[in-house]
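Journal club side-thread
Mid-discussion, someone asked how the predicted structure for our own chain would compare to the paper's figures. Pasting it here so we can look after the session.
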Amino acid sequence: MKKIHIDRIKELSDLVKLNLTSEELKTLSVDLNDILDSFDKLNSLEINVFNEFDDDLKDKNITRKDIQHKSWNKSILLSNAPNHDGNELNIEYVLGDD
């Protein structure tokens, strides 16, 4: 991969109105070129790894089935509630006194 020259970094820094010193330009040049070298190394890797879990998720519905079932007896549920009025539960405010 091509290296980024300090002149190009200077042009870009001027475009975005960064006042970089010559030392900062040198440091930025080294850092950017190191990053590009790292990408070169990554690009050179041959990645043909098969993920054994890929196909499992594509072919299956991972949500549970919506199965209808008999609900609880309302009077039994209300008998366990410390404070209720008819078929309604009375509870304390959770988030404030509103």
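Post-session note: Residues 60 and 66 are 16 Å apart (CA to CA).
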